[in-house]
Amino acid sequence: MPKNKNVFSSPAARGRRLAQRVVHRCWAWAQDAGAVTARHPGRLRFGAIGPGTRLAFPQGTIFGERWIHLGDHCVIGEQVTLTAGLVPGVDLGPDPVLRIGDGVVIGRGSHVIADTRVTIGSDCYVGPYVYVTSTNHSYDDPHQPIGRQWPRMEPVEIGTGCWIGTGAVILPGAVVGRNVVVAAGAVVRGTVPDHSVVAGAPARVVRRWCPELGWQPPLRTPAPVAIPEGVTPEQLLALAAHEEAQRAAVALTAPAGAASDAAVSLVEEAAAVGVRSPGAGESAVAARRTEPPGGAAAPEDC
What pTM was estimated for this model as a whole? Predict the structure, then answer.
C-alpha cells in the first residue's frame, strides 16, 4: 500500500506557501506604489486632482486627463475607466469635459465615458460595474454598419448625494437630481427628479419624497438611528440581548425574562445616553409594514 503523505509539511507545500506570501506581498506593494494621487500622479496629468483623492491600482483605461477634473477625497476603485474625448490626442478646448465632485466613490470596473460634458456631483456613491456615458450609437442609415455611423452625444449630469447601484447604466442626456437612488441594473435616461428612487430598464420612479407627505409610497422600515457618542460595546451587546428577549416574548406571548440584571442595567445606561431599543409592540408594527398591493407604484408628482 502507498504510504500517506503529509502534504502540509512536504517541501513542495512549504515552497508553495512561501511563494504565495511573496506574491501577496509583492502585489500589495504594487497596489500601493501604483495608486495615483495628487502627490504621485505617475504618468497621468489630470486637469485637476484634489487632495486625498486616490485612484486604485490597476487603473482602467484613462485618456484625455487634461480635461478630467477630480475633486477632493475621492476614491476611485480598481479597473475604473475615465475618458474625455472619443479617442486620445484630441484637443477638447479650454474647459473640462469630465467633472467629478468632492467625496465621490466609484466602484471597481465602472466606466465614465465623456465625449461631451459629464458632471458627477459631490458625495455620490457609484457601485461597481456602472456605465456612465455621454455617447450612444446611431442607426439612422439602414445600409451602413451601426459601428461606422457617427454617434449621438448629449451631456450627462448626476446631482450631489446620489447612490448609483451596481451595474446601472446612465445614458446620454440623463439629468439625475440630488439625493437620487438608482437601483442596481437600472437603465436611466431623461430627467430624474430630486429625492427619488428609480429602478428598471428603462428606469422609472418607484418612490419619491414629498415635503408634505414624506416618502411615497411609505418606507417599509424605520430609519436607522446613529449611535450616540460615548456608548460602549457592552451597552450595545446588552441592547441586542434586550431586543432578542423582546422578540422572544412577542413570539411566546410571555413576559421577556431572558435579560440578566447586568444586561438590564447596561440597557438603562445606554438609554441614559440616548440609545433606545424599540418596544415589542413597536417592533411588531414595523414588521407588519408593507408596500401597497402590487408593489411600489410610480408616485404622483409632489
Answer: 0.75
> 131-162 b/e with 16+ CB inside 10 Å = b?
bbbbbeeeeeeeeeeeeeeeeebbebbbbbbb
Q: What is the DSSP string of 193-215?
A: -SSEEEETTTTEEEEEEETTTEE
Q: How far is CA 182 from the centre of its chain?
A: 10
Q: Are 148 and 138 in contact (CB under 8 A)?
A: no
C-beta of residue 107 within 8 angstroms of C-beta of residue 130:
yes
β-bridge partners, 119: 99, 157
Q: 19 in helix, strand or coil?
A: helix
171-202: per-residue pLDDT in tens? 999 999 999 999 999 999 999 999 999 999 99
Secondary structure class of 75 (helix, strand, coil): strand
Quote the cell numbers at residue 255. 413576559
The total number of residues shown for the chain amounts to 302
Q: Could you give the 3-state DSSP secondary structure of residue 182?
A: strand
Residue 144, Ramachandran bin (φ over 0: left; ψ between -120 and 50: alpha; else beta): beta
Q: The C-alpha cell of 68 is what?
A: 478630467
**DSSP tag of 284:** H
For residues 287 and 292, what is the distance between their CA atoms, to the nearest angstrom? 15
284 pLDDT band (50/70/90 cuts)? very low
- From the CB of residue 256, how many other CB atoms can be counted at a distance below 10 Å? 16
Q: What are phi and psi of 89, to 5 degrees?
A: 85, 10
